[in-house]
């Protein structure tokens, strides 16, 4: 029911005024890919803030941002995974999302971070691709490494747009 309610909210959000409960091509694109619509991006940011903001100030502190999802840690391996997750989230908060480094993420900072046109997203994928293929760990890709991992590179989100379009299209 919660998933359906979220989809319904997104549908209404994508239905530009005057609302008619029918989505034209642009509105449907906003519904399917809200991150590419400025209005939907703002809506997504509000949802994230709503879900993580514990004190209701419409801003995120580090402790709110790194709070673990509800659940229990059953063993040391799971605890290590959780610790790594918290460490990664802390680094992301401090170094990337909190642009002015004041210890608080505002809606504007979160929106900038989530914007798919933000260079951080492309840079992050490039770093991940290099980490996978850089067998000799010299932080550069050699021709042999690129050829060996060519399927990985050509299957990247950056390279294969059609793969990322929903199958119904």
UniProtKB/TrEMBL annotation:
SUPFAM superfamilies: EF-hand. It comes from Antrostomus carolinensis. This is 45 kDa calcium-binding protein. GO terms for biological process: calcium-ion regulated exocytosis. Coiled coil: none annotated. Belongs to the CREC family. SMART domains: EFh (SM00054). The keyword S-adenosyl-L-methionine does not apply. One of its GO terms (molecular function) is calcium ion binding. InterPro entries: EF-hand-dom_pair (IPR011992), EF_Hand_1_Ca_BS (IPR018247), EF_hand_dom (IPR002048). PANTHER family: 45 KDA CALCIUM-BINDING PROTEIN, RETICULOCALBIN. Keywords: Calcium, Metal-binding, Repeat. Residues 40-75, 85-120 form the EF-hand domain. The keyword Phosphoprotein does not apply. GO terms for cellular component: endoplasmic reticulum.
């Amino acid at each position: 029911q919660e998933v359906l309610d979220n989809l319904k909210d997104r549908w209404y959000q994508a239905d530009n005024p005057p609302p008619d409960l029918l989505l034209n091509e642009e509105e449907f694109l906003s519904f399917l890919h809200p991150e590419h619509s400025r209005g939907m991006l703002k809506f997504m940011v509000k949802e994230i803030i709503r879900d993580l903001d514990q004190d209701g100030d419409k801003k995120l502190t580090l402790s709110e941002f790194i709070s673990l999802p509800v659940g229990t840690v059953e063993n040391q391996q799971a605890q290590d995974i959780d610790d790594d997750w918290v460490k990664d989230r802390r680094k992301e908060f401090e170094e990337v999302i909190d642009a002015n480094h004041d210890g608080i993420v505002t809606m504007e900072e979160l929106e900038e971070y989530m914007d798919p046109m933000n260079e951080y997203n492309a840079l992050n994928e490039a770093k991940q691709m290099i980490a996978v293929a850089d067998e000799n760990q010299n932080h550069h890709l050699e021709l042999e490494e690129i050829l060996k991992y060519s399927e990985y590179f050509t299957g990247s989100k950056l390279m294969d747009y059609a793969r990322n379009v929903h199958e119904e299209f």
